[in-house]
Design a protein that fits this description.
about 425 residues, mainly alpha, globular, two-stranded antiparallel sheet, disordered N terminus, about 70% helix, about 0% strand
Length: about 425
């Protein structure tokens, strides 16, 4: 019977995903060590004892894992995590080590994995392991992303910032405009935007917790939720970084770029319109601009928050607007990156929704169209940047129209996918009793 169960297509699919994921992590670990630095697996293992890089992320991951637990188990898990962190805090304070919380959350996640293997059976074991995997995937995504950024800086000595900056004239150089606005807001505006930018994953977890609130009662996960899209964006995005390496205006045209920068122009002076060229850059700065994954992630949070209560919808809208302000206002991205990031997000979201409901003609057409538009954007930035800068009133609206067309196509198609409510049957008129 067991051998028959292991041959089920879903089991085979999950086994394949686990094997491929583990192989991917090992490959990144080997690549990072080739450059003399620890990889994602080593960095994650260190956080069992050493100070984590992000305590909020670890607690957010534990919160995701706890969607499969009962309320009593959640209180026990949270109490255990806090207690462990207090013990770590006292030891670090005594030896004057770096202070950061989060080890307790990681210990609880790992303990639940052990409990699932040793104390649970059947569907309950699978459900708990899925919860553990969901929490660990969020943490692993952050670690693999850091390693990917290292690889982009080491393997792509030439960057294409001049092409994107030239194309950005068609959009009115929004990074330069936003940079001056953020400077005008002072330290308060900078701190708010910086917090929003850094804690994007925590915002995603809040929306995901709302979507997964019934898992403990129903003992199963929904077919599609925010975390799936979030992770796929993080998996595929760095591959585009390798194809289209860009460091961002604050580095290529700002003081942060040092002697590698074209000039110190950002955010006060837009770059002149001249023939763009590839330019060498250092082996430290990540080539992580095209597309803007922060924009893609914030867009996904916005999409998935639409079905929540009003406060969640407001929060999703705020996080999207604030993320756009941070990515542009801090000089991390050009406007062209933002447009590409939105198209990237809607295309991946469409693909995952089509996969969940079963591929049909409308789903295939939507994904193909989004992919085509995304590829056309990259090609136009690379080969039509001068024309875009010289005719901004033509290419600017075209870029926005291309982005809006993908959004409209997604909304129209997914509306057709929604289950139709059965019409309410009206009672037949009864003859009056005489």
């Amino acid at each position: 019977m067991a051998s028959v169960e292991w041959r089920q297509p879903r089991v085979i699919l999950w086994a394949t995903v686990v094997v491929v994921g583990l192989g991917f992590l090992i490959a990144l670990e080997i690549a990072a060590r080739g450059y003399g630095l620890p990889g994602p697996m080593t960095n994650q293992a260190k956080e069992v004892i050493l100070a984590p890089k992000s305590g909020p992320l670890l607690y957010a991951s534990m919160a995701l894992m706890m969607v499969v637990l009962t309320w009593r188990e959640r209180f026990i898990a949270a109490g255990a995590a806090v207690g462990i962190d207090i013990a770590f805090f006292l030891v670090r304070w005594a030896i004057d080590a770096k202070m950061m919380f989060g080890n307790g959350a990681l210990w609880v996640i790992l303990a639940c994995a052990v409990i699932a293997v040793t104390r649970r059976t059947g569907r309950e074991r699978v459900l708990l392991l899925k919860g553990v995997g969901l929490g660990l995937l969020l943490v692993a995504g952050r670690k693999t992303g850091d390693t990917w950024l290292l690889i982009t800086s080491k393997t792509r000595p030439q960057v294409l910032d001049q092409y994107v900056a030239t194309a950005d004239h068609a959009l009115g150089n929004p990074s330069w405009v936003a940079g001056r606005i953020v400077e005008a807001t002072g330290t308060v505006g900078e701190h708010v935007l910086d917090y929003v930018y850094i804690q994007l994953a925590v915002a995603a977890v809040i929306v995901a917790l709302y979507q997964l609130r019934h898992v403990a009662a129903e003992r199963r996960f929904p077919g599609h939720h925010l975390v799936r899209t979030f992770l796929v964006i993080g998996l595929l995005g760095p591959a585009i970084y390798m194809i289209f390496p860009v460091v961002g205006p604050i580095f290529a045209y700002g003081a942060d770029g040092g002697h590698w920068a074209v000039a110190d122009l950002w955010p006060n002076t837009p770059p002149p319109i001249t023939a763009p060229h590839q330019m060498p850059f250092d082996e430290i700065t990540p080539r992580n601009c095209m597309p803007s994954l922060h924009t893609a992630w914030a867009t996904t949070i916005f999409i998935h928050s639409r079905r929540g209560p009003r406060i969640l919808r407001y929060a999703g809208t705020f996080w999207l607007i604030a993320t756009l302000g941070a990515t542009l206002g801090f000089g991390y991205h050009y406007g062209a990156d933002i447009v590409a990031g939105v198209v990237f997000a809607f295309t991946i979201e469409a693909a995952l929704r089509a996969l969940d409901r079963g591929w049909d003609r409308s789903g295939i057409q939507l994904v193909v169209y989004g992919t085509t538009v995304f590829a056309a954007l990259l090609l136009s930035y690379r080969y039509l940047s001068m024309e875009m800068a010289e005719y901004p009133w033509v290419f600017g609206p075209l870029l926005l129209l291309a982005m809006v067309s993908v959004v409209y196509g997604y909304l129209r198609t997914t509306k057709l996918w929604e289950p139709k409510a059965a019409p309410v049957r009206q009672p037949e008129p009864q003859p009056e009793l005489v």
